[in-house]
Specification:
Elements lengths: L20 E4 L11 H12 L5 H12 L3 H18 L6 H10 L11 E5 L2 E7 L1 H14 L4 E4 L5 H8 L11 H8 L13 H16 L4 E3 L3
Parallel strand pairs: 3-4, 4-5
Antiparallel strand pairs: 1-2, 2-3
InterPro entries: CHP02996_rpt-companion-dom (IPR014338)
Protein name: TIGR02996 domain-containing protein
């Protein structure tokens, strides 16, 4: 059975059950934290994306503030992940059935697709322009760890972002500026010798530098 999707179509898992839960594009906005307590709880989740405890603490907070449905969704998805890891025992078919019943009603306006894991959006498929416009907003509420970009920014756009003041730098010379600008832990290959490879090179550096901790997949 496919996963529920607010946009009207279903995403069918390749296995009988799937840990990757998909919601497609809709007409809403990313919900923003409404209190300082919620902001702090979400910040703890984002700072410790591999830990379940901050997520379960947030689920308790949601339940205490009247959002029992969302709280249970977080708990159920965390339980599914724990069973899949072998940390605990559990009835996966029953858990997946309950997960479907609790599916979040919220829809996001800008991505082509989002993937929910352990109660929060973990992966986004979108255009680079959409991520630039909404990525920070998304990361304020969800520990987005992977972004699959559907296109590349043009080399002129990347150049303008790095060097917005005139006169513009030559696009092929901008790589040297990026190599010096990026952190040492970013793997920078030898400057590529084709326009396409150079553009991929610059896009990857731009996104990695601006959103450290997020893995970006570029189109082939």
């Amino acid at each position: 059975m496919g996963r529920p999707c607010e946009g009207g179509r279903l995403h069918t898992p390749t296995l009988p059950f799937s840990l990757e839960c998909h919601v497609c594009n809709g007409t809403g906005l990313v919900p923003a934290p409404v209190t300082s307590d919620e902001t702090a709880l979400l910040a703890a989740i984002i700072a410790q994306p591999d830990e379940d405890t901050p997520r379960l603490v947030y689920a308790d907070w949601l339940a205490q503030h009247g959002d029992e449905r969302r709280a249970e969704f977080v708990r159920v998805q965390c339980r599914i992940a724990a069973v899949a890891r072998g940390d605990v025992s559990g009835d996966l078919p029953a858990l997946f059935a309950r997960e479907r019943d609790l599916w979040p009603r919220e829809v996001w306006r800008w991505p082509d697709e989002v993937v929910w894991r352990r109660g929060f959006v973990d992966e986004v498929v979108c255009s680079p322009g959409a991520w630039f416009n909404y990525g920070d907003e998304a990361r304020a509420s969800h520990p987005v760890a992977r972004v699959r970009l559907t296109a590349l920014l043009s080399m002129d756009t990347v150049t303008h972002i790095v060097n917005p003041a005139p006169p513009p730098l030559d696009s092929f010379l901008i790589a040297d500026r990026w190599v010096n600008f990026c952190d040492d832990d970013i793997d920078v290959a030898d400057p590529p010798d084709t326009y396409w490879k150079m553009n991929c090179f610059l896009n990857r550096l731009l996104f990695q530098r601006r959103w450290p901790g997020v893995t970006f997949e570029l189109p082939a």
